[in-house]
């Protein structure tokens, strides 16, 4: 006889504060997990980038080389390199082990808000207040970007990369999705009845395909991301609303409200199993909504200030939050550390 399959565990939310780390680098502008979630990066207003083991609370290395505050960072798929961008307009490629600068890419005319590697970590994509996304080849010595995406009419606040797509949010109120396989750009603005599909990436020059119909939220866009399954996009804007969209059809699948986001560029994401929408807030909390129902599941009190940044573990219910000069590590209530009994 065969035994029945065990019931899958229901989603649990990280609401137990395990660690608070004083990062010692001024204000923490961003916190980011590495690819497997074992380490994290913190970006400081004191020009440094730091690598941590957040569960143990140990600092592993400090990276110094920016000329102004560091605003974003990302790790490569094999954990061998980091990239970062900041207020000095530079994009920096780092060697993780040595802590040395491998390349420093210059070309942006304003501060760099966001950086991402492509999947193979051969290209860094950077989004800037100068309204451009620039693509830098990590392997060549050429000083100029291999591609410049300059469709945005205002600063680029967010860039995310999948295996063949680039998702970008801008202060101009548009979300742009570049399909690198098809050579298309899908771009839409709030209130528009239809978008536009413009040939953009790769060798394709001509527009192809039908226009996208995306109900994009009003006002400056602060953060965009893909769902873990790649089917949806999450968009936050300065009207204190997040919207979940079907990536291909543009259908509005859900709206999420209750948090405060009217002034700052704050992070949003989906939980590790795409069950909850998660957002920073200017009132000292992190908000969790049930993705399908749209109802608020948890308002996690972090502290008295603005929750500047967050990062969600790729496979586990583990959350990192940044407030002031500290980061906090959160796990589910049932989680036990090595020192706990049991």
TrEMBL record:
The ranges of the WD repeats are 21-62, 63-104, 105-137
Q: What's in the GO CC field?
A: catalytic step 2 spliceosome; cytoplasm
Mention one GO biological process in which this protein takes part, according to its record: mRNA splicing, via spliceosome
**From which organism does this entry originate?**
Myotis davidii (David's myotis)
Swiss-Prot/TrEMBL keywords: Cytoplasm, Repeat, WD repeat
Top-level taxon of origin? Eukaryota
Protein name according to UniProt: WD repeat domain-containing protein 83
UniProt family annotation: Belongs to the WD repeat MORG1 family.
Q: Where in the cell is it found?
A: Cytoplasm
Q: Name one Pfam family in it.
A: WD40
Q: Which InterPro entries match?
A: WD40/YVTN_repeat-like_dom_sf (IPR015943), WD40_PAC1 (IPR020472), WD40_repeat_CS (IPR019775), WD40_repeat_dom_sf (IPR036322), WD40_rpt (IPR001680), WD_repeat_MORG1 (IPR051980)
**Quick check: keyword rRNA processing in the entry?**
no
